[in-house]
Design brief:
This protein is α/β, with parallel strands linked by helices. The chain is about 25% helix and about 25% strand. The protein has two domains: about 190 residues, Medium-chain alcohol dehydrogenases, catalytic domain (Quinone Oxidoreductase, Chain A, domain 1, Alpha-Beta Complex), CATH 3.90.180; about 140 residues, NAD(P)-binding Rossmann-like Domain (Rossmann fold), CATH 3.40.50.720. Strands 3, 4, 5, 10, 11, 18 and 19 form a seven-stranded mixed β-sheet that branches. A six-stranded parallel β-sheet has the order 14-13-12-15-16-17. The protein starts with a helix and ends in a 5-residue tail after the last strand. The structure holds NADPH dihydro-nicotinamide-adenine-dinucleotide phosphate and zinc ion.
Length: about 375
């Protein structure tokens, strides 16, 4: 039988179309979601967009539990969309690359933090501060991905993630991979303001709130040679602070501990997720000192500054800081791995009731210092 050339071409064309169509199929995946405000975690199946030319597909290995996840699940910061799969401290292995990808190859480790896209052209993006994108950074979950059909983004308590390679972080093959995930949020959120404040050897630095973020702040400030004082509300963590290299531990519920601290600190980093006395910390700044704020309590429970104290004890600066840009996140990651700076983690299986329990323990101050979910155990 003679097969016409046209038929062969049509056949090949058909196959090619099929391959492209298959590539464009969304990726079905599953994760752990809450279905309402303060809900329990349950399995949830959903789809992520197909791997585009500049995207990588990551099989998630570990996902950290950040207090911001709790704020979202509790709708502390305003209205939320449900079902919600939280998680913005993500590490995994690359299982697929788009044809334009240059930074990653299959088998590499990759990390994803709090954001997965931005306009890349505004002033903030041009300065490598995509988190302050003037058109809005696209968040890893509870975001609308305007570059992928307005997909409602879902986070890292899941099997896999599809992300533009420019928003993924390279993780060295020799990193302690089970401890890396929290670096992608807790690490960069403390590293960035510490660098911005110019912390250097011999500085008197305070870290307020000694949890997931705070303990990373202590490690970075100690590594830079600062004299670090830790502020928290419990006696339970005093020894841990000293073990991590702090010089002093202040239990703010103990008036004795608070003595002689006025005009002491060149920099205080505040990571507290609940209401607190911000004026007390302002008073502890020395002349020309800086207060960097990253902790964001529920909107209904926000601390406020007394303008009188702020003005009468002037020449102190307060700045806010949100995570860090992609360039700085890569810098933090390299710095952390090179200097063996990792979070202290408690690894749990990807089981809804264990995540529920972990959330309660974070609220009750019972975790030292960061829960990480082993996503390979998701059933
Ligand atoms: P954690 O719950 O892990 O840590 C918070 C710590 O603060 C705990 O040790 C807690 O003590 C302590 N604390 C609570 N109240 C006080 C107080 N009045 N004085 C001193 N310490 C106190 O939270 P995370 O570190 O994960 O997150 C902290 C905050 O940072 C959250 O609001 C989170 O949303 C925000 N965040 C901000 C980011 C940004 O880009 N700016 C990024 C990521 C997080 P105990 O454990 O004993 O209760
Ligand atoms: Zn976070």
């Amino acid at each position: 039988m003679k097969i016409s050339k046209n038929l062969i071409i049509m056949g090949l064309f058909g196959l090619a179309t099929l391959a492209t169509a298959q590539n464009k199929e969304p990726n079905q995946t599953k994760g752990l979601a809450v279905f309402e405000k303060k809900g329990k975690f349950q399995p949830y199946e959903f789809a992520r967009h197909a791997v585009g030319d500049n995207d990588i597909h990551i099989e998630i290995l570990y996902a950290g539990i950040c207090h911001s996840d709790l704020h979202h699940v509790h709708a502390d910061w305003g209205k939320e969309e449900f079902p919600m799969v939280p998680g913005h401290e993500i590490v995994g292995r690359v299982v697929k690359t788009g044809k334009g990808v240059t930074k990653f190859k299959i088998g590499d480790y990759a990390g994803i933090g709090c954001m997965i896209g931005s306009c890349r052209t505004c002033e903030a993006c041009k300065h490598d501060h995509e988190q302050y994108c003037e058109k809005g950074a696209i968040m890893t979950y509870h975001g609308i991905d305007r570059y992928n059909n307005n997909e409602h983004t879902q986070g890292g308590y899941s099997k896999d993630y599809v992300v533009a390679e420019d928003f993924a972080i390279k993780i060295p093959a020799d990193a302690q991979i089970e401890k890396v995930a929290p670096l992608l949020c807790a690490g960069i959120t403390t590293y960035s303001p510490i660098m911005f404040a110019g912390v250097t050897k011999g500085d008197n630095v305070g870290i307020a709130g000694f949890g997931g973020l705070g303990h990373m702040g202590v490690k970075y400030a100690v590594a830079l040679g600062a004299d670090v004082t830790v502020f928290d509300i419990t006696e339970d963590k005093r020894q841990d602070a000293m073990r991590m290299g702090a010089k002093r531990y202040v239990n703010v519920n103990n008036p004795e501990d608070l003595k002689d601290l006025s005009n002491s600190f060149s920099f205080i980093l505040n990571t507290i997720p609940a209401n607190y006395d911000i004026n007390m910390y302002l008073k502890m700044l020395k002349y020309d000192g800086q207060l960097g704020i990253v902790g964001l309590p529920a909107f209904a429970n926000m601390p406020s500054i007394s303008l009188d104290k702020f003005i009468w004890q002037g020449n102190r600066k307060i700045f806010g800081s949100q995570i860090g840009g992609i360039r700085e996140t890569q810098e933090m990651l390299n710095y952390s791995v090179k200097n063996n700076i990792y979070p202290e983690v408690k690894i749990i299986n990807a089981d809804g009731s264990l995540v529920d329990e972990a959330y309660q323990n974070v609220l009750d101050g019972k975790v030292k210092f960061r829960y990480v979910i082993d996503m390979k155990t998701l059933k």
